[in-house]
Every structure is written in C-alpha cells, then in structure tokens.
C-alpha cells in the first residue's frame, strides 16, 4: 500500500493515522475504518488505519490486553485490503517485528521503547516503514539517534517520528511544540499524537485519565507549526472502549475537526 | 486610547502587543513604534506599544535596569500620543501603579508577581487595563484567582492574561497551549508572549538565554488555538539590545511573520 | 539577638526556624514560641521564631491576610524579648523593609520575589540578616546572584538561603536535594523549608494542599545532606490555622521529630 | 545465594547492589567484585554484585553494547560462585528472562521497561528475585501496579523497587525522595540508584552526562529516609569505562562513602 510522504514537507495536505486503540473485533474495526475512509477520501487526506493487536504496557495486570495477536493482525490485514488503506500496528519486543510485518504497512515503536536498539533494528529489518513515538522522557532533538538506529539497519527505511507529549510532574503530560520542527529537521515526516499526549498518567486508580476536550487544541497547534500527520484514536462510543477510552475522539466529531484543521493547513501551505 | 477587545473572542483579527524590552532612548522607541505602526496599520492589526521603564528582576545586580523611571514613562506617553497607539508598561510594587498609570493605557503585572495581591489591587485601582502575565509556576486555570483579585478592586477593569511558559527543569521553559483556552474561559482576552516563553533561565553565566528561531513556531501555535493577541519584543538589532536580546525578533522579520500569522487567524475565524 | 551561623558549616547542631505561618494572636504566638523554646533549649538547638505579619500572595482574594501589620510586628518583637529568641518575618515590597526591620532580627524574602532587586536591596540596607527563599523556578546555583544583590548593598549582611522545592508540573513541588550543597558553596547557611516544599499548588479550589506526613522525610534528607537549618511551621491544631494549615506540623510532634533529626545530624558531624 | 531482605525494614544495615555497568572482562569483574566484597564484609553490609551482559538502550547505535550475552553471563555466575555473593543483571525482552535466570540471583527490569507486562511476567516466572527500576516517568505510588504484575505470576517472588530519578526537563533528572516511603509501603525493599539518578540525558552529543560529585548527596539522603539498599556503579577508572563512565564512583572512594552512610543508617535504626 502506498504510504504518505517520505520526508517532512509542507506542500501537501497533512495525513491521518487513525483508528481505535486495540482491535476489539472485526465489526468494530470495519465500522471505524469505513467511516474514516469516507471522511478522508472526501477531503483528500491520506489515511493510515491504526490498530493494536496487543496492549503490552497497561498500568494494571487485569486490564484488557487483546483478542489474540494473530486474530487481531488478520483483521488489520483485511481492513487494509478491503478499504485499500495502509495500516499500522505497534510492536513491543523484537520477535514481534517479523510476526507483525506481513500484516501491516507500518510498524510502530511505543514511546516507552523508543530507545530499545534491538526493537528498532528488528523493525527496520522487516523493510516496513517504522513510526517511532518519542518517549515521554525524550527531547525532539534526541530522536535523531533513534532514526539513525533504524537507518543503520535499513538505509532505505521510511521513518516517521511521532510526538505524544513529555512528562510534566507525575500526573500530567505537556506537548512541547518546539519538538515538531526539531524532528522535521531530520528529514522525516513528523506526526502529532493528539490522543496519548492528553493522557493523565500515574493515577491512583491505575486507570490513565484524559482530556478529550483538548484534542482540537493540540491538533490545531500541531498543524499550524507544520506537522505532516496527525495520530488520533477514535471510537463510535469512547465510554465503552476497552482501552484509552478516556482520551478518544468520538467518531462523529472527526469530520468537523478535520475540516477546521484543513483550513489551517491550507493557510500555511 | 482605545484598547482592543474586552473579552476573549475569535471573530476579529488578533492584536499585537510589541515593542522593545526596556525603553533605551526616545529615538529607538520612536523607530520601533513607527515601523510596527506602519506594518500593523497596513494589515488591520490593532497594536499596543510596549516598553519597560525599569527592569526589576534582572538575574545579576550589574545588569542594565533603565534610563530613569519618569524619563522612560514620558517617552512611552509621547509614543502613544505621537503614533496614536495605546501603550503598556510593567510595574513591580504597588506604589508604582499610581506613578505609571498617567503615562500608559495598560499596566502589566510581571509573571513572578502574578500572585501579589497588593500589586494587583493597586493596578486595578488606577482604572487602567491590567495585563497579568501567568507565572512560570502557575496553571492557566489558577489564573482565575488573579483575575478575581483585580475585579474585586475594580469590577469594570479590563483584564488581559498572558502566557509566557512554565518552568521545565531549571534551564528551560515549555509553553503548554492548553492554558490558552483555559484562560479564555474566564472571558478575558488571552495573549501569547512569544518572546519570554523562549527564555533559557538559570544559566550559569547569569545571562538568560533564548531561541529566537522558534518565535514563529510559538506564534503560529498560539494563533491556531485562538490567542486573542501576541506579545513580541523586537529590536532593529537584537544583538545590541540592553536586555532580553537573546530572544528578540529582528524588527525586519516582523512583517513577514505577521503575514503568515494572519493567514492562520483567518483560517480559524 | 544573636543569630546562628554566619556561613554554611557542619561542625555544630542545625538550627530551627519555626513558628506559626501568620501571626494570628499574641496568645497563640506565645504558646507556640514557649513550647518550641522549651524543646530546643533542652536539645541545644538554636531557635529563630518565625511569624508573618501579612500574607501577600494568597491564592484567593478572600483568604485571611493578617491582623494588621504593626499589631503583628509588635507581637513578634514581644515574643523575641520575652523568650530571648531572634525572630524572622517576610516582607513583600521594598517599603516594608524599613517598616519591619525594627521589630525583627531577620527579614525574609518570599520565594516568588527572590529575583526582585529592589526588595533584596531594601532588606540589605536595613542591616538585618536576610533569609532568601529560593524561587520554585530557580536552581540552587542561580541563587548566587540573589546573594550578590544583597551583598552589593551591604557587604556585611548575614544571608541565609532556604529551599522550598521546585515546580513539578502544576499541582506538585519536588525538592531537589542537590540544591543544598550547591547553595552552601556560596558560604551562606542553607535551610530546608519542610513546610512549603510539601505544598500542592494550583488546586482548583484555590486552597493550596499539603502532605504533612512527609515532613519527616524531607527533614531527614535535608539534615543528612548537610542543611544548616530547618524551617518548619507548626501549630497546636493545624486544622484551625488561618493559613497553610494543610502543611503544618502538629506542635506536639515537634520534639519527637527533632530527636530523630539530631541523631542524623550527629552522624554526619 | 541468600538475598538480603524480603520486605522494607529499618532494623538492619542497608545492603549494597554494586558493580560495573557492563561486564567488560572477567578480570575487571573480579577486580571490582573482590574489592567491594572486602569492603562490605568488613562493614557487615550485604552485597549483591551487578553487571550488565548487554546494554540495550544506548543513545547511539555505535555505542558499546557488550562482549556477548552468554560470555558475560558466565562471568557473572563465576563471580557469584567465587566470591559467594548474589548477582543481578538486567533483561530487556521476555525471552531473556529464561536465558539469564540460570546465571544470576536477581533479574532487573530497566526503568524504561517497567510497564512492560510481558517482561515482568517472564521475570517472575523464572522464580528469581526481580528488581524493578522505577521509570523516569513514574510516581512511586504507581509502582504498586508493577509489583502486582510480578506477584500475579509468582506470588512468592521477592521484588525490589529501585528509584533512579524522574525526568526534570529534557537534560536533567531529579530524585524525589517522597518516593522511597511510598514504595516501601508496598512491603518490598526499596533501593536508591545513586548512579543513574545523576544522569544528564538528552545531550546533543548522544553521550549521557553525569554529576559524580553528587553521589554522596543522593546516597546520604536515601539512607536518611530509610532506603533498604543502595545501587552504585563503580569502576577502578571511570574515565575508561565503556558505558556510564560519566556517573560512576571511582572504586577507591567507595569505602569512605560507605563509612559515612553507615553512620547515618545507625542513627535512624
């Protein structure tokens, strides 16, 4: 599947990496992908469907972690083929790179794992594109070394860098928009994750909180400063989502949000 | 002089609060005011001229602090009258409110002092508009109490709130753009200070550093998320400015920057 | 009154700066001073009585701010004379330095105001000792410049530096114990404020929160790394204190705490 | 090998987890272990020898990562048997748990990986003790869930929790000593990592910096607030160490440091 953009640039529309958090079922994945595809097609926005086959770093041991890796990966592949969209999923250990690569177009490195050399190398070796999330403890400038780890294994690799905020005390994250131009300087497309950057970590309950009312604020600022893409998790009914429900955008708000963002994008082209 | 906006709103152009940092001389003040006035008039951007008559919290005892309070205030007044622009200056102790009020249209409360009840009250009592800078240690939401302190003394007071970043470790500030909508919810115009939010405090040298290449990034994000105004310090030659030179925008870059920002503003109206 | 220590040193017992937050009444001030004096005399710990005549930076406009400046200052003076202990109070604008100096032995500069050159100079000019609280936005190393501002006005001034934590996100402070040796390097006694360093600022309610159960943790670490003095606010019944009740040590726990701390102090002498 | 302490307690001497960072050679490992063993035996301090068989998250792709996993693990085992000391090494992916377990007594979970459920579970399943480093983005209180993940797989598992500081801006870490009593409340031994908590991450050079002069400050504070153990990396000549040299304690300073710390420990027993 053809992927949007190979370097950071501001001469084209931004692209959207979106989907539910975890793959919960085929029906739900199709419902979400179909609706996003309709919206993005009508607006000329390139779309990459995102779904996790496993949640590997939930706060609590008894949180939902998935429906089974291969089952979820097959749903991802079917979504990609049925809707003709590229897909992305996150991997957590190096052995998962080869497992997941046949099913998706982009392998995503979670933020906590962005310094794990073996994982970056394994992802690179598959030949897939690699989307590296910037750790909550990392500067944008330091992500240069993560890009180099991937390129070292596969100089042709398409690498994306995604910001999802930085630790700001224990219970909050802050998005430092200086990181977007810093990361774009490495000649890779840069993405703003408007979902996880609004998490409220380290809650006493063991359930990460969120602030979905601020998704629009984060997204607008990202587009204005030149993000090449946005990462948004969305769900027809976030209150029943099995993970990250506190931060998801209700699916029926996506179109209105993208319309506002496209106007800003056009203003900076 | 008529001041722009009495509440936060997104149906009009943003306004610009700009000038040099300290008033260094009448010639320089006129040069800067004249150029900004030309630019903003041609673009329909309301303009408030800013100048400090005294720098009261320089890091080091031997830093430049001013040319004399009354001398500087008279220059501010002349600039206002000559160019027909409202003016703003910062005050540091409550007795300065009555001293400075006859010369300017807006009294500004420095960020470190935004919780000093006596200072806020004294500013309110003059009847002048009050621009409160958010402390580097304050959330946007907590600025509600600062607004209330002013309104308690003068319920008719026009209050502005300005963000200039939050402490992020010792040597850096981060701008949390969530604060702009949070502060706008108090029904006051909100301003992004694109100069001081890029300071690098706590440098071993005792000279605060900066990152002027990122002014555009901060300004664009601010406009995109709905800032009513921008605060920018500018100088024909920042390298010889007597304070804050490390963060100032070269005056000849102002017009190009504002043109980009106006496009973003129009995209969100 | 003779003040403890003129430079940072580890060959003597630590000293205690303690009292209520605000001076609420003469009876309460005497009750607290008497009890602390008994305890510290029996343990050979030098004691400085602390009381505020005015609270100038309460979060909310309707918070308690004092019983009247001169009335409170006279109580402070009487406490000093009656119990033969030096006293300390905080000032907020430069004009207060001359007002407060005749009543106390030490003038304290609040943390938010630690960069206000005029205030530091005015305190220095009184000839009183000056206790500068490190701003929540300051490194220990940067306090060198605050010390220099005082010494510039009065080279003989006795200066204390007090740490009270650094901003850590919006709703929390963290104590960075690296700051104590950094500040001691300026040849001034360094103090750990075990009360305000446990504040929880920026609460939605406008009432700063606290964690008094952790006072012992902060105090023990401070003594172990060589603090010359401790600052502790205490009250017979913190739940009815008119300010900072959320962080005060119950007066009847002071003796037990000091006993533990003295053992650690002796271990490092 | 018998391990020190199964719960957090203050009635016994602290224990020491120490060694070089990476296993560079058998000779060096023996030299370091022998010297530490002499010192700790003479002082009655339980000792666990630490060595990494692989550095998996170096900043740069061309940094030293190890001499070979099994070769290094065999050296670790020989050190344990020769000096009769328990040993600890860190693992990075779940498959490494079973690989490393036969060679060491404690499996250590790196800070970046402390939320990876599979890794914690795999470590637990080996029956080895598990030392979990608190992530730079985690509160002490949130480590409860990490302990639960291990105990869920192996209710009998001996779990240690180690603090190594929290992100404080991009280029610095701060140690929040409130976390030690918070983690001790989970009834596990708590350890202060005096080496990595002084790192300076996100350096432009890609080489993490350090502040070894402050090791004593961090260690003293930790002992004073009740740490059960200390983690210290040491090297006969830190300037030639192949990783983390910027933060290591010169081996010839270890004895003097421990003597000071033992006095503080005795003062709080």
From TrEMBL, chains A, B, C, D:
Top EC class, one word: transferase
UniProt-annotated location(s): Cytoplasm
Domain DAHP synthetase I/KDSA: start-end pairs: 13-268
GO molecular function: 3-deoxy-8-phosphooctulonate synthase activity
Gene3D superfamilies: Aldolase class I
UniProtKB keywords: Cytoplasm, Transferase
EC number: 2.5.1.55
InterPro entries: Aldolase_TIM (IPR013785), DAHP1/KDSA (IPR006218), KDO8P_synthase (IPR006269)
Pathway(s) it belongs to: Carbohydrate biosynthesis; 3-deoxy-D-manno-octulosonate biosynthesis; 3-deoxy-D-manno-octulosonate from D-ribulose 5-phosphate: step 2/3; Bacterial outer membrane biogenesis; lipopolysaccharide biosynthesis
Family: Belongs to the KdsA family.
Stated name of the protein: 3-deoxy-8-phosphooctulonate synthase
Annotated source species: Aquirufa beregesia
